[in-house]
Write a structure and sequence with these properties.
Oligomer: single chain
Radius of gyration: 17 Å
Number of helices: 8
Largest sheet: 4 strands, parallel
CATH architecture: 3-Layer(aba) Sandwich
CATH class: Alpha Beta
Distance between the termini: 17 Å
CATH topology: Rossmann fold
Number of domains: 1
Structural class: alpha/beta
Length: about 200
């Protein structure tokens, strides 16, 4: 498994974190694909068996990566991802403009509707042709499950087969129920076996 410390990650310094501002959909995605291509060139990853998985921001990154690198990944698993930045801006639990959430989004995504549209995987699903599994807590307030449902609706409206959604009942942004976590893991293993398999 390769876990990239893409620009914008916290825990380093403020300059490194700020280097990702307004680059969620561009340079931060490039960092991920650069890491994958490095691993392939080093011979530690099989180009025919690459899957991207992430939760929350990296769930978003999994979806966005498929629009930017449609041929790099063989499958993707996205948990609690932001697929529509306008949905997030309006309906997440920080939707009150007086709170930090919208100010944070203005800073890291951009202050206009156009900025949010450009940073949303849902606006470019025509480029997604990689098998995608969605996982989302039904009661997620930080990243509402409407993100996943709207993404599925967009596929259907485009006449395409929508991704599968695993809905985790009575779960918020971070699943805690053991039965739900087991269901999520089993579905993930099944999905990985289907699309990249164990070829040893």
């Amino acid at each position: 498994m390769l876990q990239v410390n893409f620009r914008g990650s916290d825990g380093y310094d403020s300059a490194f974190e700020k280097s990702g501002f307004r680059k969620w959909a561009t340079d931060m995605q490039n960092d991920l694909s650069d890491g994958v291509n490095w691993a392939i060139k080093q011979g530690v990853a099989d180009a025919a068996r690459i899957c991207i998985f992430g939760w929350s921001y990296v769930g978003y990154a999994a979806g966005m990566s498929l629009t930017r690198e449609p041929d790099l990944y063989r499958c993707a698993i996205a948990g609690a991802g932001v697929y529509d930045q306008e949905e997030q801006y309006q309906n997440a639990d920080f939707a009150d403009q007086t709170r930090w959430g919208r100010r944070y989004m203005d800073k890291v995504i951009g202050p206009t509707v156009e900025d949010r549209v450009a940073a949303s995987p849902i606006t470019c699903i025509d480029r997604i042709r990689t098998p995608l599994l969605l996982i989302h807590g039904e009661e997620d307030a930080r990243v509402p499950i409407e993100h996943s449902k709207k993404l599925i609706e967009s596929f259907a409206k485009a006449g395409r087969t929508p991704p599968r959604l695993i809905e985790l009942p009575n779960e918020g942004h971070s699943p805690r129920n053991a039965a739900n976590i087991e269901s999520w893991y089993r579905s993930t293993i099944e999905f990985l076996n289907q699309h990249i398999g164990n070829k040893t």
